[in-house]
């Protein structure tokens, strides 16, 4: 049975957050992870009232597609589109979403 020498190990322990970021970079999954995080955090960004009547579906070509079940909420979101984009940019950066589509 062969033992591993202590010299083959890394000397410093890497924090979990840093290791996770490295993993995402290595496999080029950063964008997908951010997209899924945005969809998961949608209720926190827009509030309970709007989130209960909307469903963010997916992001394609830097455009977030949101299904809206209420006409007045859809109109309100269209009028405050830039505010929602600003909230997303503040939380995730400008590279993730550049436009919103409501249907």
Automatic annotation (TrEMBL):
* Species of the source: Algoriphagus namhaensis
Say which domain of life the source belongs to: Bacteria
Q: Which Pfam families match?
A: DciA
The protein, known as: DUF721 domain-containing protein
InterPro entries recorded: DciA-like (IPR007922)
């Amino acid at each position: 049975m062969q033992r591993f020498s202590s010299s083959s190990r890394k000397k410093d322990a890497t924090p979990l957050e840093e290791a996770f970021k490295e993993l995402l970079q290595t496999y080029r999954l950063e964008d997908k992870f951010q997209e899924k995080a945005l969809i998961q955090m949608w209720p926190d960004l827009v509030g309970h009232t709007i989130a209960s009547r909307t469903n963010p579906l997916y992001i394609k070509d830097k455009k977030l597609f949101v299904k809206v079940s209420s006409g007045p909420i859809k109109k309100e979101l269209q009028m405050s589109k830039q505010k929602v984009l600003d909230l997303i940019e503040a939380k995730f950066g400008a590279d993730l979403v550049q436009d919103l589509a409501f249907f």
